[in-house]
Specification:
single chain, mainly alpha, globular
């Protein structure tokens, strides 16, 4: 029951962060057209810094390196399989953007913005949990900037080697890995200047969850509240994403007999609500913003129930 209690409290706090964003839009202190700018700040600044923060916390070992590679391969394959399944299911309806958004929303999980603080709360004695989440986010980002973007826009130009190699996730990983492999820490132990850099990295990384939820609160203020609950496809996406997907992944990991830390980290991240990046991609790409926002909002609000329930399995 401890996992249930911790998860319930963490999700409740995360949802509370959305309130100021809601108020800012309703009081017209921030204009709705500015939401995409906040999304870009989240994806292009805070998330890359969170990657650096996560790798800076972990200590490289050969075993951890192998587990991270295994983690990356498994989660990438499973995401591709689920996206492929729903592409086939909706193949005759893909002209409608709501089916394209639903296809990606069934799979993409809020693995870093919500996943990192949740993992750190559930597994406080494990410094590696955050770096596992970055491997998940790297996989999701590689798919997001290429396959997911191509699905949302129906434009194959997004599937390119340039998009794979040059995006915020891969660039931040490339910067982080030399420090990770060499064991060099950006910390006060290596001088006052690096100590201040460490503080800056920590502060910016901790902004990801509040900023993510602020954006969500802003978007909530722009939609008709009842519209969140009237689209059957949103319920389908949330059910698959927050129940079927994590349970399927847990079954696969149990059969493969992988390391317990790897297994439970991946399971918790898969159980996180529909990824806010579904909304962020829609905002940036200019396609299906309302559908994406409603699905993400429904998933996030329902996570106050689904996440604590899924945590009981731990």
């Amino acid at each position: 029951m401890q996992e249930f209690k911790v998860t319930l409290i963490m999700v409740g706090i995360m949802l509370a962060y959305a309130v100021p964003g809601f108020v800012l839009i309703k009081t017209k202190a921030v204009k709705p057209e500015s939401i995409s700018a906040f999304s870009k700040l989240l994806m292009f600044v805070c998330q890359p810094v969170l990657t650096l923060y996560s790798f800076n916390k972990a200590d490289f070992t050969k075993e951890l390196g192998i587990n991270l590679l295994i983690f990356f391969v498994i989660i990438t394959v499973v995401q591709l399989v689920f996206i492929g399944i729903f592409c086939l299911i909706f193949r005759k309806k893909m002209d409608d953007v709501k089916y394209r958004i639903t296809t990606v929303a069934t799979t993409l999980s809020n693995c870093s913005f919500l996943g990192v603080p949740l993992l750190e709360a559930l597994f406080p004695n494990s410094p590696n949990v955050a770096v596992y989440s970055m491997m998940y986010f790297l996989s999701m980002s590689l798919l997001g900037w290429t396959l997911v973007s191509a699905l949302i826009t129906r434009d194959k130009k997004h599937i390119s080697l340039k998009k794979i190699l040059i995006n915020p996730a891969t660039i931040s990983i490339a910067i982080s890995l030399p420090f990770f492999f060499t064991g060099f820490k950006i910390s006060a132990d290596n001088g006052y200047f690096l100590g201040q850099i460490e503080n800056m990295i920590m502060i910016l990384s901790k902004m990801t969850t509040p900023l993510c939820m602020l954006v969500m609160g802003m978007r909530l203020a722009t939609v008709e509240f009842k519209s969140i609950f009237t689209n059957p496809l949103s319920y389908l996406a949330v059910a698959i994403n927050q129940f079927v997907f994590p349970l399927a992944v847990l079954g696969i990991l149990t059969l493969l007999r992988v390391d317990d830390e790897l297994k439970w980290c991946m399971y918790v991240m898969c159980a996180c609500p529909v990824a806010s990046v579904v909304q962020n991609y829609a905002e940036i790409l200019g396609e299906g913003q309302d559908v994406a926002a409603n699905t993400v909002l429904l998933g996030t609000m329902s996570s106050i129930v689904t996440l604590p329930l899924m945590a009981l399995i731990i």
